[in-house]
From TrEMBL, chains A, B:
GO BP annotation list: histidyl-tRNA aminoacylation; mitochondrial translation
Keywords: Aminoacyl-tRNA synthetase, ATP-binding, Ligase, Nucleotide-binding, Protein biosynthesis
Cross-referenced PROSITE patterns: AA_TRNA_LIGASE_II
Record domain Aminoacyl-transfer RNA synthetases class-II family profile: where: 160-491
UniProt GO molecular function: ATP binding; histidine-tRNA ligase activity; RNA binding
UniProt entry tagged with the keyword Protein biosynthesis: yes
Organism (species): Galleria mellonella
SMART domains assigned: WHEP-TRS
Protein name (record): histidine--tRNA ligase
Entries under Pfam families matching the protein: HGTP_anticodon (PF03129), tRNA-synt_His (PF13393)
Gene3D superfamilies in the record: Anticodon-binding domain, Bira Bifunctional Protein, Domain 2
Catalytic activity entry: tRNA(His) + L-histidine + ATP = L-histidyl-tRNA(His) + AMP + diphosphate + H(+)
GO CC annotations on file: cytosol; mitochondrion
Length: 611, 611
């Protein structure tokens, strides 16, 4: 937008503010309210300052969401005479006002508003309102007569976010539908929660990652943050609604101010697909079903070979205990172990010793365990391990793993599961089994290979709901989260490499005409087809070219066209064209719906209805 | 959370920050980077100041998202010696730092970090890290030993928002699926955009309502706001992607800091369902299809009788012109007319005269037009109207309406359309046809009647996309938005009144057992059914009671149960129970999948498969 236009818009905005404030002043006058408690700044009294401070404890600015005339007037007049240390909020306001640069301050309007606002006489206010409204309209009329001039700022989506175009949406919807189908097959219900939560709800749940939370601006009222995951909102929901049993899925976007790596599907706004089972049940029964759900989803999506690693937080604790790590260092040692998927053991060992204060001998003992992985035989061997068998926690963890692996065998997914002592998972809130699905082979896209790695993860968290309950009442939970963004990015890369094709609409019939002046006839035919529930399109141009219309059908994989011609219509006939085979058949116009339905049924059976 | 606990957490956080910064300093040392360009504040040089200013142009604070030790150290040392007018961003940072209150500053850590950070010797840093890590662990261990104390804040969703429980989600998904089906029937593609936009994108689009926009906190980086509707993001998307033709739907939540009236479906977070057609097409052809889409949706949802009011912005302009309103008062007079759905004419007239500066005679002339409504005959009568026929704009508007009504007749929706001269629509950006769907009868729920009113609205906006294009290139658009929250609230009220029932899951088969120790057998059967694609559940308890299991089926409308018994299993048989009829039949275990499928097919045909 041109500079002059921007200034004009700014003036209009300010003039509009002025008019609104005058009206508000008038209204306040009429209601007999005193508006001058905040405004009469020329004679500063102790009372006024306290009043301003009180007002500012609830609002960032005096008159609205951004510095208003009133703010500016007070700011200009209050000077430095005030002992701001006495007024905490006033002080904050004052410094915020001071933070505007000279060039910004020059844009502040000149009108001496407060002297107007406190006129007792409404008649004078009315005159003033009319006067200012006139100025506003004069400004607006300038805007109308100048043609809208484009804006200057860079046109982009916020960092780490993106739009989904129709092709990307088609992929996304297809993946999500498949995931939802599996969730529903296991009887999960669906819930949704607001995109933001009270900031307090998120506080203290994510450890070091809390710095990645998006906060909303304090615009007066509650302090809010965007959700960081779907697990904490679930726990808040269960505690708030006093629900002790729920099998739910939740598919929604979450927000993290992380460094985005968008080509690898790492965004600041991204989808999570969560499946969780809350309730007091028997050991490992719901836990094993979560694994079954993950295998069904990954099989259904068919994006490559994978392995489901499992471990147990209690076993990790027992292992640390057995290796001689003091209890107060379990969690922090655990977060070192969690780095084993990215760093070699030597680095992890150094971190343990230098940063976590683990003794070198203890670290070496840990090193012998975390290279182990296998099946039920490993768990049974470890149950007889000299050191581990002395730890109650280790035994509990190992017995849990053995039971889990047994149930996985019953579920027919034993070959996908790997008991892996190096799996630790970052989040603090896990209390039992933990799992992570990893693609074992890079995915070939064109001539390139894309390493995807971790694609789902989860575990048991029995203490999170209790953190929200006033009586600390616990609801045990176990769940899993599917990392769909990585799946989207693989499929989008395949699309870009020409290895797959998607339909972005589902239109079955296009109503076309070869001759001019058939718009109304097309509309009638469309109406008949729409009213019969048939997905139909036509051109929005009066006299489109035949070639353009048929090209549209080919581009969009529309299988059938109804072609209108004058001579056929006179005989009460229309043509149905198969776009792929280019065959045309005449059918009676009055039987069009039946004829179209018959052909669509046939195409669907044959499976050549588009992609 | 207890006060002491809060302080402890604060300390842990600060100590953690310190440790992280020490590690970062060490890493920077190792990479040979000079970290002292920002930090060596004790000898301030011109170069340093410029460097800090450059750094702050990209980040709000020097070391992170909140004032860090480094910020504080610089703040304490830099004093007022600096000529801040030379450093715009540095100045802003400085005043932001000053805005912290005394009590907040007291909480700032005492460690003189910078003097540490620039130690050349990594060994010293290592010692320091170990020292600080110890302190951190000591603090954390205090936290672990105290039992988790429940938090004190009120457990609620943010003002004007709500959770959707499974029943509400079932309703919501059902309504949205029906709406999407209609959108798809008309060939619409789907897009999605981020939940937030650069604040600049939203600025200047919503007039007075801009104050209702949710802003995100400035945490360094871009200044963001939550989307206010789906129309402006669409325009931004079209301009940014240089798309000149698109028929798209977009269903997503939008955010307005309005005063919520939640019982009537007015929230701060709410769904919009938008259908828009962008592109240069022939007059009224896409416009009429939008109306067709609305009628199909409202018929499909079947929530009551409705009327679709239409009018034309050009006709309104021409009418104001003909009545003697000056051109610069058209928009503001229009916004008075917009209030006619809620206020009587007398009030609107007074506003026009007193606030908008319309002459009383002109207002009276307007009053004679805005009571008019009807069909094509009214438009044709007005075309011959003495005053209107002199206005080019009025003729253009009326001819548009006549064409629109003709197309609506071809679409078979003439009886739903009402040409209404009082319809004005609030938003500034409309340039042509405008429409609004209104339920004409209150909805009966139990013994109460709920007035719903406006349920969809839209119009043509030909200039919005150009506002985002650097060359001001226009993409004409027309669209409609379905007010689904009001539909949800009606249906939820019906649900609460017991007038409807919804299924919150789709489970077809429940695997139950009458005797103990059948968990593993149930799991095997479940696996067979799941792997055959049958929606199946069982109890997560080892030995659930038969009555509880059957009750679960009845509560959740699950039609079939597979009942396992020892004696049957020995004979290779299982029982299938119809939950409604309570009939049981024995079938061979090995044929279970086929037998279940056969029964489900029968139930689906008969239409008694749940609700």
């Amino acid at each position: 937008m041109a500079e002059s236009q921007e200034i004009l818009l700014q003036k209009i905005k300010e003039q509009g503010d002025l008019v609104r404030k005058l009206k508000a002043a008038k209204e306040a006058n009429e209601k007999g309210k005193k508006t001058d408690s905040i405004g009469s700044v020329k004679a500063v009294k102790e009372y006024d300052l306290r009043e301003i401070d009180r007002h500012l404890s609830q609002y960032s600015y005096i008159c609205g969401y951004m510095p208003s005339n009133c703010d500016i007037e007070i700011y200009k007049n209050i000077g430095t005479k005030v002992d701001f240390e006495k007024y905490k909020y006033f002080k904050r306001w004052w410094y915020h006002m001071r933070s505007f640069s000279d060039s910004e301050i020059k844009l502040f309007p000149k009108n001496s508003l407060p002297s107007i606002m406190y006129k007792e006489n409404n008649k004078l206010l009315d005159d003033q309102i009319q006067e200012e409204v006139k100025k506003l309209l004069a400004l607006k009329s300038q805007l109308v007569t100048e043609d809208a001039v484009p804006q200057k700022f860079t046109l982009k989506t916020p960092k780490g976010t993106r739009d989904y175009n129709p092709q990307q949406m088609a992929i996304r919807n297809d993946v999500l539908q498949k995931i939802i189908a599996v969730f529903k097959k296991h009887g999960a219900e669906c819930i949704d929660t607001p995109v933001f939560e009270l900031k307090d709800v998120l506080t203290g749940k994510y450890g070091e990652d809390s710095k990645l939370i998006y906060d909303l601006k304090d615009q007066g009222g509650e302090i809010l943050s965007l959700r960081y995951d779907l697990t904490v909102p679930l726990a808040r929901y269960l505690a708030m609604s006093k629900i002790t049993m729920l099998k739910r899925y939740h598919i929604a976007k979450v927000y993290r101010r992380d460094n985005p790596a968008m080509t690898r599907g790492r965004y600041r706004e991204f989808y999570q697909c969560d499946f969780d089972i809350a309730g007091q049940y028997d050991l490992m029964v719901p836990d094993a079903e979560c694994l079954k759900v993950v295998t069904e989803i990954l099989n259904f999506l068919d994006i490559g070979k994978y392995v489901l690693k499992v471990n147990h937080r209690r076993l990790l604790d027992g292992m640390f205990e057995a290796c001689g790590v003091p209890a107060d260092k379990f969690r922090t040692t655990c977060s070192s172990v969690d780095k084993l998927d990215k760093s070699p053991w030597e680095e992890v060992r150094t971190e343990m010793i230098n940063e976590k204060g683990v003794m070198p001998e203890a670290a070496d003992r840990i090193g012998k365990y975390v290279i182990m992985n296998g099946g039920v035989e490993l768990a049974e061997k470890l149950l007889k391990d000299e050191k581990l068998s002395n730890s109650k926690a280790a035994i509990e963890g190992l017995e849990g793993i053995i039971l889990l692996l047994k149930y996985c065998e019953l579920f027919g997914i034993k070959d996908k599961i790997l008991f892996d002592l190096s799996l630790a998972r970052g989040l603090d809130y896990y209390t039992g089994v933990i799992y992570e699905a990893v693609l074992t082979e890079p995915i070939k896209i064109g001539n390139e290979e894309q390493t995807v790695g971790s694609i789902a993860g989860g575990g048991r968290y029995d203490n999170l709901v209790g953190m929200f309950d006033s009586k600390n009442k616990q609801v045990p939970c176990v769940g899993v989260s599917i990392g769909v963004e990585r799946i989207f990015s693989v499929l989008e890369a395949k699309l870009a490499a020409g290895e797959m094709r998607v339909r972005t609409n589902e239109v079955d019939v296009y109503v076309a005409s070869a001759q001019k002046n058939f718009l109304e006839e097309r509309m009638k035919i469309c109406t008949e087809l729409w009213d019969a529930g048939i997905k139909t399109e036509h051109s929005y141009k009066k006299n489109p070219k035949m070639l353009t219309q048929l090209q549209h059908c080919e581009d969009n994989c529309i299988p059938l066209a109804v072609v209108l011609g004058e001579s056929e219509l006179k005989r009460g006939m229309v043509k149905i064209r198969n776009i792929v085979s280019r065959q045309e058949e005449e059918v009676p116009r009055e039987k069009l719906v039946d004829e179209v339905n018959a052909r669509l049924a046939l195409l669907n059976t044959k499976g050549i209805n588009g992609v």
